[in-house]
Amino acid sequence: MILPIIAYGDPVLRKVGTDIDKDYPNLTELIANMKDTMYNAQGVGLAAPQIGKAIRLFLVDTSPFAEDPDLSEEEQLFLKDFNKVFINATILSEEGEEWPFSEGCLSIPDVREDVFREETITIEYQDENFKMHTETLTGLAARVVQHEYDHIEGILFTDKISSLKKRLIKKKLENISKGKVKADYRMKFPLLKRR
């Protein structure tokens, strides 16, 4: 089932997510619905706060990046198959040189800005079967995971841009929170006046 994506301005996007366990209600259905929602919106990641749940759950599928001709064949193959569910994740380290990449967010449609992130992360998480994993990721896979991880920490990519750029997009962000934006997917707006 495709769920509405929570728009910028909703307090749930600023909450630090709580850990969940295997008894979380309807978890299998929730993950399936999140995948449907992400693919419907043509996203490469989706975090539970973006569908209104302040829990430590996000998923990623970097296969759209696998078509990038600027990447090595090895990177393309890795990204093509990088499709995972992350539960109760903790980033253990972020290392390497910071590099810019134009990021966007399904909760903030029509806004893209360069965000600097470190190139390598080590993350500990549980998969949908609650099996524990520790992985080191680099490049675009690391970036997508960092972006989604920020969501479960109550952080948005717009928090990581310069104060000048924040001022330049301030009106756009206000309009998004009021529902004055067109998206190709269902959204839920916090400040939309109910009639």
UniProtKB/TrEMBL annotation:
One of its GO terms (biological process) is translation. Binds 1 Fe(2+) ion. It comes from Lutibacter oricola. The keyword Metal-binding applies. Fe cation binds at residues 105, 147, 151. It comes from the Bacteria. Removes the formyl group from the N-terminal Met of newly synthesized proteins. Requires at least a dipeptide for an efficient rate of reaction. N-terminal L-methionine is a prerequisite for activity but the enzyme has broad specificity at other positions. The lineage of its organism: Bacteria, Pseudomonadati, Bacteroidota, Flavobacteriia, Flavobacteriales. The active site is at residue 148. It is an enzyme of class 3 (hydrolase). It holds the Pfam family Pep_deformylase. SUPFAM superfamilies: Peptide deformylase (SSF56420). The gene is def. Keywords: Hydrolase, Iron, Metal-binding, Protein biosynthesis. This is Peptide deformylase. Its cofactor is Fe(2+).
